[in-house]
Task: inverse folding
């Protein structure tokens, strides 16, 4: 899908402030999703400073923190600091410790592909204990079934929700947000607003520096251990996007790593097999370990998706994902390049719970084929 970018004559911070003031001007409840990470810290700081300057009404605001249990200690401490700031400013702060479900990319070898936060059946091995002020249940929550993405809209349906999601984090997120159903009021059909959606990663770090916002120390530890600054993500540890935080955790958080392995025994896989197809890695180290890649990925996909799918996809989730990949294979076969077949194969092997890899492959193949068609057409006209 083609995406048109429009240059603004205002900087991203000014525009974000304007969006926030527009949200609060409606006079309805405003809910802000907060995680303690770098993006939500920017959104929180912008909002709090508008409250202090009297430009928005704190009484309309409820800050929501979904505590995912498997988080860094410094993230917990950061959220506690900001909880106090918002409560002192007159806003409400809800700290949720509820049984929401995450996809667990470390359990690809078992029939259990989920991680249940605050699993009541595993209280004796919880990574942390809920704080005394945490909310532990809600009438609209389906414990062990809902993810936080399906739970939050239930408790925010009477107002507008703002979150620090940014399009620069992935092509898939850019496509999703450009395709949102925006009504005449400039709001999504889920009453969701993204005030910093157009910020780049450099904008985030520059804002935190300029505004002297304290960041969780884990960001510094991860950066010092070699993590690319575009991959510094610190939410719960077991999703395909955040599992890299486990690779070096033993170096800077050895005690936490022990708790994580006790809670999720397969966590060690990230350390042992990080440079492998299990995690879709294409690093130099993987090439050194595996040697020349001579696999026929198209043939492997034919076997996985059409000849013996029951041997590879043995859970309802895997079957559902495989159906989408089978459709991709049928539509793209003939246009796909060898590297595309490899990406499809590794997406299936590593798991693609939110189908982000699938959407990226679609985008890559279509764009490449369109570019090839343009070059071919120009060549044909020249030869005519």
Result:
């Amino acid at each position: 899908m083609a995406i048109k970018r429009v240059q603004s004559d205002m900087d991203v911070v000014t525009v974000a402030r304007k969006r926030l003031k527009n949200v609060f001007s409606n006079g309805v409840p405003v809910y802000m999703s907060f995680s303690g990470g770098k993006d939500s810290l920017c959104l929180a700081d912008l909002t709090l400073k508008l409250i202090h300057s009297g430009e928005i009404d704190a009484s309309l605001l409820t800050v929501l923190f979904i505590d995912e249990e498997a988080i860094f200690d410094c993230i917990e401490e950061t959220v506690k600091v900001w909880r106090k700031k918002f409560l002192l400013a007159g806003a409400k702060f809800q700290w949720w410790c509820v049984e929401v479900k995450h996809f667990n990319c470390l359990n690809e070898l078992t029939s259990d592909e989920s991680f249940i936060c605050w699993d009541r059946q595993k209280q004796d091995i919880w990574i942390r204990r809920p704080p005394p002020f945490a909310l532990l249940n809600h009438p609209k929550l389906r414990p062990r079934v809902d993810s936080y993405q399906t739970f939050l809209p239930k408790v925010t349906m009477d107002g507008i929700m703002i979150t620090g999601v940014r399009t620069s984090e992935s092509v898939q997120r850019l496509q999703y947000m450009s395709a949102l159903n925006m009504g005449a009021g400039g709001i999504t059909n889920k009453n969701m607003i993204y005030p910093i959606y157009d910020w780049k990663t450099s904008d985030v770090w520059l804002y935190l520096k300029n505004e002297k916002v304290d960041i969780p120390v884990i960001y510094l530890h991860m950066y010092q251990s070699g993590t690319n600054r575009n991959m510094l993500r610190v939410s719960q540890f077991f999703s395909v996007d955040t599992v890299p935080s486990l690779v070096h955790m033993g170096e800077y958080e050895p005690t936490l790593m022990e708790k994580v392995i006790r809670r999720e025994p397969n966590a060690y896989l990230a350390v042992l097999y990080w440079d492998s197809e299990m995690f879709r890695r294409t690093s130099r180290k993987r090439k050194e370990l595996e040697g020349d890649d001579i696999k026929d990925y198209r043939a492997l996909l034919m076997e996985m998706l059409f000849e013996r799918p029951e041997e590879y996809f043995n859970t309802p989730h895997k079957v559902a994902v495989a159906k989408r990949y089978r459709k991709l294979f049928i539509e793209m076969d003939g246009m796909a390049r060898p590297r595309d077949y490899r990406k499809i194969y590794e997406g299936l092997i590593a798991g693609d719970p939110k189908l982000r890899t699938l959407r990226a492959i679609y985008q890559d193949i279509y764009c490449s084929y369109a570019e090839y068609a343009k070059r071919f057409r120009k060549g044909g006209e020249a030869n005519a």
User: Anything to note?
Assistant: Confidence is low (pLDDT under 50) at residues 181-186. DSSP finds 16 helices and seven strands in the chain. Residues 297-370 form one domain. The longest strand covers residues 61-66.
